[in-house]
């Protein structure tokens, strides 16, 4: 029989502490929308054959959704287990465009110009979602409403809140925190916290 701390040892990356609440962490202000259906849209651009594709709020919300449960790990040291997300798989969104073969990375664009970068291999994973609900409820404004990215295999700063678009790039390039000392990739199992790790 396995003891609980042994189960957790396999699930919680090094130097992380499990929390039961859900801390709120971000740089800048929580966006306010007066009419989200008119003010929010989702832009796909960069190295795609179409040049640019823009989805309205209604179009985005009508995309096929899945429900997935996973753990999240913040670089500041907390992990939150068993989060159930409902959202649109990243692969469903990317299917809407033709990505040029020279694309190697993406920049995720969020409200107010906040960005984070991912290699294509990290971005196109089956587990990654554009999440709309957490544990059955719409995301709250401070956790990214109306849509946030969830990339569970990397530190949680890669999971952009208030996401507004994907830019396909020929090479990896640092986003907001990555320009400010965080690691380019951010694998919690290898403790890739800072640029020098
Ligand atoms: N748009 C945006 N997304 C963001 C951030 C941010 O500053 N702006 N911070 C990141 C960081 S550092 C973390 S740890 C998580 C925190 O998400 P939470 O507040 O829902 O816990 O959001 C990530 N996504
Ligand atoms: Mo973070």
Q: How would you briefly describe this protein structure?
A:
The chain has 197 residues and is α+β, with helices and mostly antiparallel strands. The protein is 15% helix and 31% strand.
Q: What do these coordinates show?
A:
The chain has 197 residues and is α+β, with helices and mostly antiparallel strands. It has a single domain (4-21, 38-190), classed as Sulfite Oxidase, Chain A, domain 2 (Alpha-Beta Complex). Helix content is 15%, strand content 31%. It has helices spanning 4-11, 36-39, 57-61, 90-94, 120-123, 176-179, and strands at 17-18, 41-46, 52-56, 66-73, 78-89, 105-110, 115-119, 129-134, 137-138, 148-150, 163-169. The strands form 2 sheets. Strands 1, 4, 5, 8, 9 and 10 form a 6-stranded mixed beta sheet that branches. A 5-stranded mixed beta sheet has the order 3-2-11-6-7. β6 and β7 (115-119) form a beta hairpin. It is globular, with a radius of gyration of 17 Å. The model has no long low-confidence stretch (mean pLDDT 96). The site of the ligand Nc1nc2c(c(=O)[nH]1)N[C@H]1C(S)=C(S)[C@@H](COP(=O)(O)O)O[C@H]1N2 has 17 residues, from loops. InterPro entries: OxRdtase_Mopterin-bd_dom, OxRdtase_Mopterin-bd_sf. Residues 29-177 form the Oxidoreductase molybdopterin-binding domain. It holds the Pfam family Oxidored_molyb. This is Putative oxidoreductase YuiH.
């Amino acid at each position: 029989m396995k003891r609980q701390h042994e189960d957790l040892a396999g699930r919680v990356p090094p130097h992380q502490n499990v929390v039961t609440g859900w801390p709120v962490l971000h740089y800048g202000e929580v966006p306010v929308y007066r009419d989200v259906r008119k003010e929010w849209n989702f832009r796909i651009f960069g190295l795609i054959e179409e040049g640019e594709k823009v989805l309205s709020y209604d179009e985005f919300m009508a995309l096929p959704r899945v429900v997935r449960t996973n753990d999240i790990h913040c670089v500041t040291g907390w992990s939150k287990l068993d989060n159930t997300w409902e959202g649109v798989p990243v692969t469903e969104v990317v299917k809407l465009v033709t990505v040029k073969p020279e694309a190697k990375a993406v920049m995720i664009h969020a409200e107010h110009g906040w960005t984070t970068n991912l290699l294509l291999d990290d971005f196109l994973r089956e587990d990654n979602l554009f999440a709309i609900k957490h544990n059955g409820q719409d995301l709250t404004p401070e956790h990214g409403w109306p849509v946030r990215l969830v990339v569970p295999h990397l530190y949680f700063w890669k999971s952009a809140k208030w996401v507004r678009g994907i830019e396909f790039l020929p090479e990896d390039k640092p986003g907001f925190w990555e320009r400010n000392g965080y690691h380019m990739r951010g694998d919690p199992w290898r403790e890739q916290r800072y640029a020098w790790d």
